[in-house]
Amino acid sequence: MRPLSRVHGGGGRRRRLSSGLSSESVTRAPYVGAMYSSTNSVALVGVEPRLVGVEAHVSHGSKNIVVIVGLPDTAVREARDRVLAALVSSGFRRPSGRIVVNLTPADLPKVGSAYDLPIALALLSATGEIPKGALQVVALGELTLDGTIRPARGALGAGLVGRQNGWSVLVDPVSAAEAGLVPGASVLAVRSLAHAVAVLRDLDGPAPVEQIANRDRPLVVDLSEVRGHEQARRALEIAAAGGHHLLMWGPPGTGKTMLAKSLPGILPPLTSEQELDVAQVFAAAGRPTPGRGLRPFRAPHHTATLPALVGGGSGIPSPGEISLAHHGVIFLDELGEFPANILEGLRQPLEDGHVTIARQGNTTTFPSSLQLVAATNPCPCGFHGDRKVACQCSRSAVDRYRRRLSGPLIDRFDVRVRVGRPRRSDLTGPVGEASAAVRERVQAAMKRQLARGRLNRRLGRRELDALAITDDALASLARAYDELTLSARGFDRVRRVAKTIADLEENNVVNSSHVSEALSLRGGW
Ligand SMILES: [Zn+2]
Asked: Residue 354 carries which DSSP code?
């Protein structure tokens, strides 16, 4: 316990209060002199929950004063008024005298209204309304003036901290469902302060934990809905299997968006651990958790700001789209319309699998291990190379357009495919293979890679140089290097993709057919 003398100061009284002020000896005393109690809550640092101690100390004084210390923001300081009003309207008496509420650790910023409930409970315990031992809980929630508990950010973190310490989580029913995502967490759902006190007094009658509905459900397209596009479907499967970033280019209205939306559906479902990672990011962003097992699919518009994409914002940094897409897919439609500084800002997080935001000497890290899918027109008018519509752009305009995309980000796309206009026979022809069948092959190929260590997207040059490859395949790679003026990076890309194609075939050795298919997926860049 933090020495209380640091909290309330004040000459001789300090010594008296801090000597032997164990929680036991103080709360057993009747409501005279000083009374103390404490409970627990959480703060989020990035997506990581940190334990926050909530201490309440009530001492007699001529004046009624309430002080909240421990790096509170304005919303936390205003807890004073909400808590006192909620106490009275819930039928409890307002503690008189000097009240000091301390939130520990002192150097961790406390933000928002989530500490109302634990502060009220600590006060009620200090004044003897709740038995001391009953406060071995993690409490979180905003109080309305009539004592109703409203949802607050951090329920999932409360679940993690509660499980770690063997405490129950005490939150409103909506947050209870979020906290209940943590396997093994004990969650008590309470609707009001009076209800919370009743539950803590006899640990009886908590509302049942309600299941979270699949809100924010990503619109996943089944591949059976995509007709034609044989090469693009194949490219999508290869990209999924190796975790490769995918670039699709072609005229507008050819189905690039449909193809992108079908990617989450051919990836293996999230493991429960990954599900928890995703829920943590969404909780840190103050958003409802996506449905169980679903891979996130985010599609930010090209007008989105850099903080919205990579994270940041005013106040406590919030995760951006690339973190909301963690373990899932981010789709950048009209890639060429995204400002250069934004594309540049995406590069490092994609490479590292996490993003670090520095602010006033503090750094916050959010995860960003994801698959990037982008679509672009081939030229400003969109019809360069189209079978039916003539391109209106000059040669130099087309070149300029492509050069804009030829920066370092474009190097991150291992798989690039042209998505042309589907033929009429495709649109009336047989339905394509369903996502479930493709997913099985993808899953098997991923398993092979993970058994070796990591996804092929992450293979470095040293690993690529050690690749098992036939002499034929090596010869055609060398030819491509010379004749197609493949860059060194392009050479690595082809080898990575060829390895994934071999994995899809359950072949340990890369052969020349794998290499030639990989070479066909270099796109027009
Ligand atoms: Zn054009």
From this structure: E
